Amino acid sequence: MNELVTNKTVVSKVLRNSFPNDILTGLATFQRQHRNNPKLMSLGATVSLLALSACGGGSSSPAPAPATQINGDGFKGPLQNAFVFYDADDDGVFDYTDVNGNGVFDQGIDTDFEPFSITDADGGYELDLPAGYDASHPVILMSQDDTQDTFLNIPYEGKMLSSTTSTVTSQLTTLISSGVDEDDLYSILGLNKADLPADFSFADFNPFTLAADAPAALKTAANKTEEVSQQLKTVLQLVQSSATGAGVTADEAFASALKAVVAKLQAGDASILADEAALADIVQAVADDIATSNPTAAAKIAATKSAVAASAKLINDDFADLDLDTIDVDAIAKSSSAVDAVSSSLKTKVETTDAAELEAELENFDDEVIAAKQNSAPTDIVLSQDGSAVTGAVNVAEGSLVVGVLSTTDADANDTHSYSLSGADAAKFEIVNGELRFKEAVDYETATQKEFNVTVRSTDNGGKFVSESFVINVTDVVEAVSLSNTSVDENTMAVGSLSTSGVGAGATVTYSLGGADASAFEIDGDVISFKTAPDYETKSSYEVEVTSTDGASLTATETFTVTINDVNEAPTAVALSSTSVDENIISVGTLSTTDEDAGDSHTYEIGGTDAASFEISGNELSFKTAPDFETKSSYSITITSTDAGGLSSNAEAFTISINDVGTAFLESSLTNTITARTDGLSISGNVVASDTSDASLTYSITSGVGTLGTLSLNADGSYSYVLNANSGAMAGGQDVFAVTVTDGTTPQTENLVITVEATTAAANEVLLLSSDSGAVQTSITAASDAAVAGDMILVGSGSYDEDVTIDVGVTLLGANHGVSAVQYDADGHPIPLFDGDKRTSEAAAETHINGTLTIASSDVVVDGFVLHHADGPLGFAQVEGLDNITLTNNY
Q1: Contacts of 532 (CB under 8 A, 6+ apart)
Q2: How far apart are CA 35 and CA 630, in angstroms?
Q3: Exposure check for the chain: N or C terminus, fewer CB within 10 A?
Q4: What pLDDT is stored for residue 376 in this prediction?
Q5: What is the spatial distance between Cα 254 and Cα 37, in angstroms, rounded to a whole number?
Q6: Which parts of the chain sit beneath pLDDT 70?
């Protein structure tokens, strides 16, 4: 093993089945499909990996000197940091026993692994095969995330194969191992074997180790080797991207692509790698190869042949006639790295587009190729700490999350970049806003791992990338201060215990305070406490800075925020908005509570001597029954407030004073009675009231509307009641009025009941009310000679044995301004009854009688009538012939 590899730390440890370069992973499948091809290497029996011993770049345990040592160079140009291993069981995969089960190869932990090595800057590797190994199996070179083509100074992705007898591993040794006869390579590359040294072999030829004065034939061979290597990588990568995008596995895709390329090369020469028609044939051959097993994928692959062929030609034309002495490295680097960018885009388009639409989708794909060729790949990733770039190993203080800030060097100043991680310890890191960070801080004293290896890839917006591997060392910080508790219930003094990590055994540690709220705290030994118990409502958090100093005067400072927990506290006081109440008033006042917890709700409980006289609704205190000063002038109670958490205040004592207030009193029952026959149409009376404070009284009717009469109430409490005309008062009934008296503070209301007694006339009696006397006359013939217009004759109810004849000139008004005397027939229909010169229309408002009104004696019901004076003294000639007549009044 060469010196560089021997002394080199394996930065990017191998991830089983996770190499990013799936382009060539199908190589092993291709070989297994051609085991019987005599042109392929001889395959021996599979060797048990349990017998592996020290070899190459790694081994499972110390061992004697290797039985076989394989030295070689990997190139396309020289490939640095490529992973090379001896595929002892010919399965195309690096095998090992995953001791810790993490799915990652950990050198020094995992066992039974195949011999491996990491290439140096010149692509050199060394593999040591222990005794018992069959040296006929392939050597496989696989790119890692940080594998670099040091000639073009760009990342390399791929997988190549050689035999143990080869001293190089390249694209050409891959062709030889895949069935191309080495003698055929001369014509494929357009070389004349006779022009080259007799011992020349592509299995040993490295164009990047030629001396400057090498013969022209060797330089021509070097140029053609690099040209074909570049072109072969382009074709295989694009064809495989089309197939994997269509759903074919990487192994199958590469095996089929390689088979198609080999067949085309054997039928012609390397010019087919830049011939659009030949390239289209290769894509179609891949589609045909998998059509039976996966016709859907085959249709998609076939739809890409024009785009793939055109793209491959656009790129491979740039590699034609390469001259390593005069090559424009930057231009070739752009074209070479364009393959990676457009392959990724091609795969995505094939994955997301139906076969029928795929050809149209890729119609302008060559525009992407042209853009990718013009784009410069990023060339470096810089990790900075405190504004300065870090060179060599990166040191990070224990407990820190941030490793450093990432930036990318790119000739295209306007390019944007995205970052991704790989490598043995990638799972322990993350990139946040351009910062490389530990996912979890590492403690130096307890960590089993203090050195970490991670590879960062920066990809520009054109799909080109650069990778950089970093070794990150966690360094010991002398002290770190911690506080056992930073959350304290209010009213609690003790905060917590201080401790310091990273201090040597037996060291004496002292603590001091600083920061905004240092004056609120004190330290006793390693215990920090408040000087005065904190109150959440006053201040809910404190910031204090603690400095730890050990015996060597090494210090560490940490700032802590101590939060105060809001703890439910009992109410401290109860208040009552009023303790003086007028007598006869129910409401006392509003209760309120003093409570440190501003948002608390409260309930109240009454106690004390006179508790039974009170009640509480919500926070309103009231008497159950209105108080009376003369009965009791003060009351003693206590009030207790309880918050929502069930904590109560002390009982608060209150004395409720009753104010003496004058009270107006009405007689409990106010009644009066009116009889029209004896009292006329009105009566009068007085509402009697008194007041304890001799205040002046005010009287009012607060409700009630008379249906039989109208009540008038005077300021002194006197009243009059007058019967209403046409109201049926002659039949009797009651009117009820609510009368209120007040002294200005305490109104009292009682009902005034007016009873109207029925007025029934005796036989042959007509009642006459004269306007001048207001008296009720009992004889129709005794009408007053002094009667004037407006006098009324009231006919009371009763049975009459004689006809009634009224012989005067009068105006007759009916009960409803219609007829006055009505006879009802057998069907209940009314018949107006008039005799003499009069109108008999039922709708007439007035009836003028000039002569005699006769009410026939034939069981007639008279609904009552009123006779008004017309144009002379009211009088009646006679009353005669009353017989079986019922008269009813409408008053």
Answers
A1: 520
A2: 125
A3: N
A4: 84
A5: 18
A6: 1-67, 478-479, 504-506, 551-554, 662-669, 675-681, 691-695, 724-731, 758-891
Retrieve residue 590's tokens.
């509003």
Torsion angle of C-alpha atoms 773, 778, 782, 783, degrees rounded to 10: 50
Whole-number CA gyration radius for the chain: 61
Residue 291: what pLDDT? 93
Rounded to whole angstroms, the Cα distance separating 83 from 125 reads 9
How wide is the angle at C-alpha 170 spanned by C-alphas 27 and 89, nearest 5°? 40
Position 180, amino acid:
V
Q: Quick: pLDDT tens for 192-220.
A: 999 999 999 999 999 999 998 999 999 99
- The residue with tokens 């005796």 is 762
Q: Do strands 541-549 and 580-582 pair parallel, antiparallel, or not at all (unpaired)?
A: unpaired
3-state secondary structure of 612: helix
Both tokens assigned to 407:
């930036």
* 194's tokens: 């006779």
Host H or E run for residue 144: none
Burial of 651-688, coded b for 16+ CB within 10 Å and e otherwise, reads ebebebebeebebbbbeeebebebbbbebbbebebebe
How does 97-131 read in b/e, with b if 16+ C-beta sit within 10 Å? ebeeeeebbbbeebebbbbbbbbbebbbbbbbbbe
Whether residue 303 contacts residue 242, with contact meaning beta carbons closer than 8 Å, is answered with no
Contact between 404 and 491 under an 8 Å Cβ cutoff? The reply is no
Beta bridge partners of 790: none
DSSP-derived 3-state class of residue 793? strand
Domains of the chain plus CATH, in order, are 3-179 (no CATH), 216-374 (no CATH), 380-475 (2.60.40.60), 480-565 (2.60.40.60), 573-658 (2.60.40.60), 664-757 (2.60.40.10), 767-887 (no CATH)
Please check whether residue 185 is in contact with residue 173, taking contact to mean a CB–CB distance below 8 angstroms.
Answer: no
Going by the DSSP 8-state scheme, the letter that residue 721 receives in this structure is E
What are the angstrom distances between the C-alpha of 590 and each of 22, 173, 614, 644, 793? 82, 100, 13, 19, 67
Give yes or no for a contact between 12 and 468, defined as CB atoms under 8 angstroms apart: no
The model's pTM is 0.49
Residue 454 sits at φ, ψ, to 5 deg, of -145, 145
How does DSSP classify residue 727? S
Q: What is the per-residue pLDDT across 449-468, written as a single tens digit (0 to 9) for each?
A: 999 999 999 988 888 888 89
- pLDDT at 251 (0 to 100): 82
Name the strand (E) or helix (H) holding 614. strand 614-617
Q: Using CA atoms, how far apart are residues 270 and 697, in angstroms rounded to an integer? A: 130
How would DSSP label each residue in 318-383? GGTT--TTT--HHHHHHHHHHHHHHHHHHHHHHHHS-HHHHHHHTTTHHHHHHHHHHSPPP-EEEE
The DSSP-derived string for 415-484 is --EEEEEESTTGGGEEEETTEEEESSPPPTTT-S--EEEEEEEEEETTS-EEEEEEEEEEEPPS-EEEES
Instruction: Provide the 3-class DSSP secondary structure of residue 806.
Output: strand
pLDDT of residue 310: 93
- The residues that bridge with 885 in the sheet, in sequence order, are 800
Query: Token digits for 252?
Result: 């199958």
User: How many CB atoms lie under 10 A from the CB of residue 244?
Assistant: 25
Closest CA relative to residue 203, chosen from 162, 253, 244, 264:
162
Distance separating alpha carbons of residues 615 and 623, to the nearest angstrom: 6
Amino acid at 207: P
Show Cβ contacts of residue 553 under 8 Å, excluding neighbours closer than 6 positions: none
Report the distance separating Cα 657 and Cα 47, nearest Å. 109
Report CA-CA distances (Å) from 438 to 418, 423, 430: 18, 14, 6
Distances (CA, A) of 199 to 71, 222, 427, 548: 18, 15, 49, 74
Structure tokens at 78: 């020289």
**H or E stretch at 512:** strand 510-514
Question: Which amino acid appears at position 179 of this protein?
Answer: G
